[in-house]
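Write out this protein's structure.
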Amino acid sequence: MRILVLSDLYPPVALGGYERDCAALVEGLRGAGHDVLVLTSDRDAAGAPQVPHVRREVPWLPEDRVRRTLTAAAASARAVAVTERALDDLRPDVVVVFNLLGVPQATMLVALRRGLPVVLRLAESYFAGQLMAADPFLQHLDRGGHSWRRPWSAVARAVNRTPALRLAPRAPARVSVAWASHDLRRRAALPAHLGVRQESVIHPLSLQAEDFGLLRRAPFTDPTLLYLGRLTEDKGAEIAYRALSELRRRGVPARLVLAGPADPRTGLALDSLAAALGVAEDVKRVGPLDAAAIAPLLQGAHAMLVPSLVPDVFPLVIVEAARARVPVVAADIGGIPEAVRDEEHALLFPPGDVTACATALARVLADPEEAVARAERAFQHMSRLTPGRYLAQWEELLAGAVSDR
């Protein structure tokens, strides 16, 4: 098959787990002999390796809301142009859409208006619930809405009548859906104009998790808690700090290492929190790391902490920790209990409950034998998420999408 993959980010340019899931799919399909082209954003394109099957051409939308809105029409026109070119060059049998929140969702509309089979990979709660609605240009094409938006909507509709655009975000279409978890499938509702041809739940895969499965455990001398991922309020970074403070209050020694990106404001807020809690000397933020740098942290960590406050779909960090045999302590929310079962594979606590989080961490540190046994069961449990099984599920879904054209 010829397959076009659309994603706002693609490794090594990445902020979270869905990009690693996307890379696992692309490499698996290419390894199976399929012709795959990735069309992604131009964010940090200059520093990314130039490879023939990845085009970094779609404009990345500004983070600032005003600039994002003002540049949305031009960005959408450019996105349409590069998508049309990719479709003409590849002539795909099917188009797979990953997260498009950072780029114009016009890329997906181009494929739909050509009548191509489209498979939505829904691995992010916000994207699943905000298809079209969150796009800074498409959302203004409706005639309704607040009165203060109507003049801008009139301008947006006028711009959309130009030949470079002519987008119809509410046009009826049928798509196939690859949900990343049963939890997301239950929670998310697609826009009414999108009908579902077929759907399947395919848990995400991380190629680096396979490598982490080969690591030998070598725990650090000091009890170490590891947090991997974006340092945001939703991900519960503050809970990690407060749990560390609670451990100190109980006389349980530990240090916290956080590996992941944080915007400057969040970084300053977390530093201030650490100082206020009196744990600054026990906290180390190391920023985003590649797999090679993460590996020794996984080898040495006594526990992986995943303190999410909002539903995580199916966190790859838990898959990677389990494959590295790191004991997991995580919030009981979203797809986390779908990934690991409480007491059997991990210790789960009510989201936002600092006391329960600290109690679970203290238990891991106080009873390493029990923690190791639980981590071994998690390793065996996650061993079922093999590249072969993952690829077979995807090939079945893609074949069905093409045959139902």
